[in-house]
Design goal:
The chain is an all-alpha fold. The chain is 69% helix and 0% strand.
């Protein structure tokens, strides 16, 4: 069981890096489409993680969360969060600044939703097309590997489930209205001028506190029903 859990943890870590790269690449691609080439000129319209990695948010923090429980460190366990290097955007290059800012901001979370949907479809294909697919998916959903199952099918299922979990977590996390997350930009664009000035002065340490304490609570609150929908689709599909 420990071996299976560690294998799943490795899959999650690799997929988190990939999903964060897709998230930032989507921001950069949308900004380029709307007229701001800043990110494109910096090579950010790419899925290559080397252009998006933030040492703390992409590597250190996720590693502590994912692998910490194996060495008894569980302070941050259960809340999978992570971030990549922010995509540079110069809003004055847009035709309609507020609309285009919102579209660029939403591109990242939407990309995670799309990845979660693709992973769910992949799991449904395994359930219906692979020998013993339903049993493999059910075992993996409970954190175990089905003895005697096809290694290639098992690997696909591990990737699919990890992709769903990670991308739903990134979707919810990034939509939190806490600076500097994507949700904060969406909220900022609907606030009156005076409120924006106060909002922009929120200290970084307060943002961190809100992300860990309030953000963790909200994520647990929203992720459970979100993943329940996926489970319903997989068990009834």
């Amino acid at each position: 069981m420990q071996s299976a859990e560690f294998t799943i943890a490795v899959f999650k870590f690799v997929l988190l890096i990939f999903s964060l790269s897709v998230h930032e690449c989507s921001h950069a691609w949308m900004a380029s489409r709307l007229g701001d080439q800043t990110a494109r000129l910096q090579g950010r319209v790419t899925l290559n993680p080397m252009y998006h990695i933030d040492p703390v948010g992409t590597l250190i923090m996720p590693a502590i969360i994912i692998f910490g429980p194996f060495i008894g460190f569980t302070l941050f366990s259960g809340i999978l969060i992570g971030w990549a290097k922010p995509t540079p955007v110069i809003s004055r290059n847009f035709t309609k600044i507020r609309r285009d800012e919102n579209l660029v901001t939403l591109a990242g979370p939407v990309s995670n939703l799309v990845l979660a949907a693709i992973a769910t479809v992949l799991l449904l294909v395994v359930i219906h097309a692979a020998p013993g697919g339903r049993e493999i998916v059910n075992f993996t959903l409970h954190g175990a590997l089905l003895p005697g199952s096809s290694p290639s099918v098992q690997a696909i299922v591990l990737l699919g489930i990890a992709a769903v979990e990670i991308n739903l977590a990134l979707l919810v996390f990034n939509l939190l209205p806490i600076p500097p997350l994507d949700g904060s930009q969406l909220l900022r664009n609907i606030l009156p001028y005076n409120a924006v000035q106060s909002y922009d002065r929120i200290p970084l340490w307060i943002s961190w506190l809100l992300m860990i304490v309030v953000g963790g609570y909200i994520m647990r609150l929203l992720l459970a029903p979100a993943f329940a929908v996926v489970l319903f689709v997989l068990t009834r599909g």
